[in-house]
Every structure is written in C-alpha cells, then in structure tokens.
Amino acid sequence: MLKDMINTLNTAIIVAAGSGSRLASQIPKQFLKLNGREILSYSVQTFLEHPEIHKVIIVTSAVYLRSVTSSYPECQVVPGGPTRQDSVSNGLSACSKNTQFVLVHDAARPLIPAYIIDACLQKLTTYDGVAPAITPTDSMVQITSQGFDNLDRDTLRIVQTPQCFKLNILRQAHATGKLDTDEMGLVKQTHASAKLGFVPGAPETMKITHSDDLKIAEIFLGKMEVKQHQ
Length: 230
Hints:
CATH architecture: Alpha-Beta Complex
Oligomer: single chain
Radius of gyration: 18 Å
C-alpha cells in the first residue's frame, strides 16, 4: 500500500479507555450507539478515510481490548492505563519510529470534519503543537472569594481534539512525569519554548459527556449528512 511506503507517517491516537461515569451508563460512552453505530466508529472512520493519516491507534481498557480489536481490524489496538495521560502515553509508545505527526483524539468526540484535520496538519508544518478551539458564546465569569470576575470571552477558547504534535515533543513531555488535563497544557508546561497554536474548531466536535449530548450529536450528525448529499 502507498501509505506503508512513505518515509514519514501521521498517526492518529484515539483514546477510548474512559469509563464514561458522568453519563451514568454501565457501558462506556465510546461504545454507546449514535444513530445505530458505536460512537467510537465515527472517529475511526474519519481518520482511516483521511488521505494524510497513515495509521490509527485505538487505546482502550483491558476489558474491551479483544472486542475493539475484532471490530476495528484496520487499527492497532493497545491497552489503556489508569488515567487518560497514561493511556495517551501507551498510544505514543505504539507509534512507529518514522511517525512525524501524532494526533490525539477523544473517542467521545465522534464528529470531526475532515477540514479540521487538514488545518491541524497544515499548521504543524510551522508549529510544534496545534489544536482546534472554539470561542464560547455564553458570558463567562471566574468565581473568586469575593464573588466573581467577568471574563472577556473573545480572549477565551474551548479547546477540542484532535490535539496534534510533532511526535518527539509530545513524547518528551510525557517522559517528564508532569501532569496536565490535556496534551496542549502538558507541552506548554514542559516545553516553554514550544510554538503552540490553534485552528478554528467546530461545534459538532462536541464531547459526549451527558445523556442529552447524544441527542445534540444526532442533530449535528443529521446536518452533516445533509451537507454530504448536497
């Protein structure tokens, strides 16, 4: 295959090891159905079909390792760790030595427009790390001991995934042992000189966290399907 013959690879790591406790479901949210399909399957398909993604790694819990391997034979499936950061680290360890860029994506974000992947890869040619982000539409405040402070929402961003990096930089950040809530924060914390940036995100790349989010995702999915057929 042409993808296997090129000198450098772009690898997507889909983190699918979470328990989905906030959704109050016995089944982890990445395995729940969205319009009759597993939530996980949407991001897997998007990355597999993207011409600039050459390998897809799924990180999942040991309980689901066999079933995920069976369901997604075109992907490499590796076990997750006790935390999200541990799971990402396991995914990084599975990357081929000729991987150039790595895109870390939450399985709970099923709807990724291909143009976001395009934009991230393009920006990575001049940046060390890139992520999609959207501007909040609600008024934003910060709670303080005296009450609250108003924040300028034009300077704030809601950060999404995939969060994309040159592989060596993200590996080095994980090797420090420092902790953060996402990859952009970890690299910023461990590499003060790293050039990090954002591209415009998409509302449909929302994270499925609560049961009502499934209904919202169904609406977005319907709109995306209509656009594809226009």
